[in-house]
Amino acid sequence: MALLKLFRPLSLSVGLRYAFASSKRRFATFIALLSMIGIMLGVAALIVVISVMNGLEGELKDRLLSSVPHAVLTGSNDRIAMDYDLEKIKRIRGVQHIAPQISDDVMIQGSNGIYGATLYGIDPATYPLNDLVRASSRSEIFNTLQPQSYSIILGYDALDGLNGSRYGGLRIISASYVRYTPFGRMPSQRMFNVSGTFSVGGMSASKMILANIEDVRKLVHMPKGYISGFRVWLKDPFTISDFIEQVKKIDPELEVKDWRIELGEFFQSVAQERTMMGLMLALITMVAVFNMLSSLAMVVSNKLAEIAVMRTLGVSQGTIMRIFIIEGALSGILGSVFGLGLGLLCLNYLDSILSMLNLNLAISAGGTGVPVLIRGGQLFLIVLVTIALSFAITIYPSIKAAKQSPVESLRYE
Q1: Which of 18, 44, 184, 396 has a beta carbon 3.0–4.6 Å from 339's, enabling a disulfide?
Q2: How far apart are CA 295 and CA 357, in angstroms?
Q3: Which ranges constitute the DSSP H helices of 68-138?
């Protein structure tokens, strides 16, 4: 067997021989094999769970934040001039699109009662084509939101809850403007026609209504030339803090309202859940790594005579130490590499595996399967830390082996 032949460096040659050569004492080898399998399963489970949590977070980000403005630029009293110069803000890194809007908290009255929602007055010509809400309702329906059409697009769940129907009428009541009438103070209200619906999932989407910006201006009596604010679409909504910092440098008087007001706590809880699950699986992997300590200690006790012979032949303590570091860390290296391959394989066939287990978790867009997002940096970090721990755990037994006295080890041989 090629591995039994000595080669340079001596520490690598003997370390590999101890790891793979047959021995009469199989128990230590069995413990080392169990440690390698434990590391492999721990790394694979950690990769699968982290990648699925990444995919779930990305899916939630796309769905929930599609119906909530990533950021809204406004001024005092929630008003800003429609001709405000946005050129510098558009050049901020990560900004995809900016469009004017007039928003207001309203009540929708249908045949099934009254429903609270947020009304957004938008201009179809400036609304981004790649927006998920627009894609869900189709652009031709968006184009029906013309001035004086008094048409609205709302979430399918909201329409169903109001017991309304498409192409029917709904009364929208705004409390931001109150008129004095012979019957007392009356909120501004008007009938709107439902021209279409959208469905992107999430509670926020069910409370979102879109209408033409000029029709909403008349409803809420917004002065001509002013709007509620400019809605900003970011490439990554999670970079909102950097965006706000850049906006304040450009114009300190601008007020920035972002998605964290409504959904910040939710996404923070999702991130904490991902961290805790990763931590629990990492602890399981560490248990397997620490099992290597006992197996390597057993190997050292079985090799005392051989260590003494090598020491009498002039092998240095450093070489003895490296021999057992290589032997012990080999389980961590092989377990990490095999775990990486097993984790990627499970992710590739995850939906098939879940189907075999009769688990229906098709929660991605369109119900096509479990969302998965593989990040190379995370995989590299998981494998690197596991291998580093495997090397670190072998240091103590290796030092004990190197410090063994040849005279004491050979006394009873």
Answers
A1: 44
A2: 35
A3: 87-90, 132-137
Question: 303 in helix, strand or coil?
Answer: coil
Helix, strand counts (H, E) of the chain: 16, 11
Q: Residue 60 has which token pair?
A: 């939630």
The total of other beta-carbon atoms located within 10 Å of residue 217's CB is: 18
Determine which helix (DSSP H) or strand (DSSP E) holds 290, and give its type and residue range: helix 260-302
- Provide φ and ψ at 131, rounded to 5°: -65, 140
Strand-pair category, 95-110 with 229-234:
antiparallel
Of the candidates 227, 15, 188, the residue with the CA atom closest to the CA atom of residue 107:
188
Per-residue pLDDT of 335-392, as tens digits, reads 889 999 999 999 888 878 877 777 665 554 445 677 888 888 889 988 998 888 888 8
CA dihedral sign, ordered 30, 31, 35, 38: positive
pLDDT of residue 98: 93
Q: Which residue from 13, 15, 39, 5 is spatially nearest to 299, judged by alpha carbons? A: 15
- Nearest to 341, CA basis, from 395, 379, 303, 378: 379
Beta strands (DSSP E) in 53-168 are 71-74, 80-81, 95-110, 113-122, 151-155
State the sign of the Cα–Cα–Cα–Cα dihedral 213, 218, 222, 226. positive
What angle, 0 to 180 degrees and rounded to 10, lies between the N-to-C axes of helices 260-302 and 26-64?
Answer: 170
> How long is the chain?
413
- Amino acid 53 reads M
